[in-house]
Amino acid sequence: MSAADLWQDYQTDARGADGRYWGRAVEISGPLSSSDVSNPAAPSLLFAQAGGRGVRARLLDEDAPAILKAVVVGQRVRLVCFCEGFAGDVILKSCILK
Questions:
Q1: Is 32 helix (H, G, I), strand (E, B) or coil?
Q2: I want to staple 48 with a disulfide (CB 3.0 to 4.6 A). Which of 8, 9, 33, 90 is the partner?
């Protein structure tokens, strides 16, 4: 599914989206907006959607260095992650490249 579709599902009905996605593995794709390495313990990628918010993908610790080297802002990226719900952004965790 696209990051935009996942974002829209949470904007439309967060509770229903939690029922469909929370705790489950999801495959998402979309153009990468930014990477955040300001917290080395939790590097993440952002697929921005609206007002600086979007789908935030926290990388699997052991794969994070390789993923950060492989991705380019603006490039389409495909990840497999576990959904952790909505907290300002849609939060995904333990993400790996697909």
A1: coil
A2: 33
